[in-house]
Design brief:
The protein is α/β, with parallel strands linked by helices. The protein has 2 domains: 204 residues, 3-Layer(aba) Sandwich (Rossmann fold); 158 residues, Rossmann fold. Helix content is 40%, strand content 17%. It has 12 helices and 15 strands. The protein has a 7-stranded mixed beta sheet, with helices on one face. Strand 11 and strand 12 form a beta hairpin. Helix 2 packs parallel to helix 11, helix 3 runs parallel beside helix 4 and helix 11 crosses helix 12. The longest helix is centred in the first third of the chain and has 25 residues. It starts with a helix and ends in a 16-residue tail after the last strand.
Length: 414
């Protein structure tokens, strides 16, 4: 009798174990440790893009620390899983798959370049993951598994081209479109060129040129820009990404090209990149973003101070000399948008969180913002900053209020 009971007990224990393992397989979120929820951080910490992406990792960790200090999300501690795809676009996809399937994270915060985002997009869609992408980009995309907290072309490219053509912007008539050779610059310049042609700019007044990632010799290109701008009615629209900006701006100064003669309007250079550059020689050049560290509000001043303090406390390179910029702000508030959505739907399930994000209004360090009701993008203001010798920006122009994001540009044929 005792032997029979023992076998029956073993049988039901086996059934229970099998049921639990099946449940876990069907619902991976059940494998999270009790009291914890894992989130992924997918940014290049080495390679050509480390100059820009390392700070995004740092600010996401700061947001997680702040959230955990206030009780976490839905009573669970947020545990970051940090990986380094090392500026290798194929590795981005591999690391994304590991985060979703091996680490079973609830959400991922990451990517900078469009080629890295497009590399991971099928991974997130196939595995029903959720990515918050924090950088301005070329548009022409709308994935149900990605929230875009950076700018779309109508929130950066088009308003800035209009500004440069206006009397306030110098009545520019010639445009040198210079970028790194990958998806964002090529698509951005396709949109810019279509816009400029539609506004009556002759095709011979538009030059388009690209250099590879990590390119360092800009002597010939800057020489061509110097000749192109002899009449004083030209500007450079720069979509150079990563550490190539350092030699480009340096060569610009070496050839005695100044902002009053031919201003550079950068779409990928912000305060964080200027930390590695000789900013005193770049005074007067411009950048277009949706946030600058110099926004003069109590909320932003607190954010800037908190980031500096966090970097110093954790012995991060640069310590309290660190700066904030547009992608840093977008990466930071993306964590809080996810938190607010999870608490709203009382779940970490990506599908439920996605529904909760749509249309959400929230306060960010740079001011109030809103997620679009349908297209997974973000309502943002548009600002132009002029580089100061200290590596900060004077805000010289901005839109009145938030600009609705357009995922697909009306200037490209569909």
């Amino acid at each position: 009798m005792k032997k029979t009971t023992f076998y029956r007990l073993n049988f039901w224990v086996s059934v229970l174990a099998l049921s639990l393992s099946t449940l876990i397989f069907l619902n991976p979120t059940k494998t999270w440790a009790e009291g914890e929820v894992k989130v992924g951080i997918l940014h290049s910490l080495t390679g050509t893009m480390a100059i820009s992406e390392t700070s995004l990792k740092d600010v996401v960790l700061m947001a997680i620390d702040e959230i955990n200090a206030k009780g976490g999300v839905l009573g669970k501690k947020v545990v970051p899983v940090v990986v380094d795809p090392a500026s290798n676009w194929d590795l981005f996809a591999e690391k994304a798959k590991e985060l979703l399937l091996k680490d079973k994270v609830a959400v991922v915060f990451g990517c900078w370049t469009s080629v890295s985002r497009k590399s991971v997009l099928p991974v997130f869609e196939a595995n029903k993951g959720l990515l918050f992408y924090p950088v301005q980009y070329e548009g022409e995309e709308q994935s149900p598994n990605i929230f875009y907290t950076g700018a779309t072309p109508n929130q950066q490219l088009i308003p800035i081209a209009e500004y440069l053509m206006s009397a306030e912007g110098g009545s520019k008539k010639k445009f040198y479109l210079l970028g790194t050779d990958y998806v964002f610059p090529r698509t951005a310049n396709k949109i810019l060129k279509a816009f400029l042609l539609a506004k009556g700019v002759p095709e011979q007044n538009i030059v388009e040129e690209y250099t590879p990632f990590g390119h360092a010799d800009y002597q010939t290109i800057v020489g061509k820009i110097k000749k192109f701008s002899e009449a004083g009615d030209a500007c450079v629209l720069s979509t150079i990404n990563g550490d190539s900006n350092v030699p480009f701006y340096k060569e610009f100064a070496n050839q005695k090209l100044t902002a009053d003669k031919c201003p550079i309007m950068a779409f990928s250079v912000a305060e964080d990149e200027l930390r590695s550059m000789e900013a005193e020689f770049l005074s007067g050049h411009l950048a277009a973003w949706n946030y600058f560290q110099s926004i003069n509000t109590p909320e932003n001043k607190k954010f800037v101070k908190d980031f500096k303090d966090f970097c110093k406390k954790n012995n991060l390179p640069g310590g309290d000399k660190r700066v904030t910029d547009d992608p840093i702000e977008a990466a930071y508030f993306g964590v809080y948008v996810w938190k607010k959505a999870a608490e709203k739907c009382k779940s970490f399930d990506p599908a439920k969180v996605t529904e909760a994000v749509l249309g959400m209004k929230f306060d960010a360090p740079g001011g109030p913002k809103q997620m679009d009701e349908k297209n997974h993008h973000t309502y943002k203001p548009v600002l132009i900053g002029e580089i100061r010798p200290d590596g900060q920006f004077d805000i010289i122009w901005q839109t009145k209020g938030l600009v609705k994001p357009e995922a697909f540009s009306s200037y490209l044929k569909k």
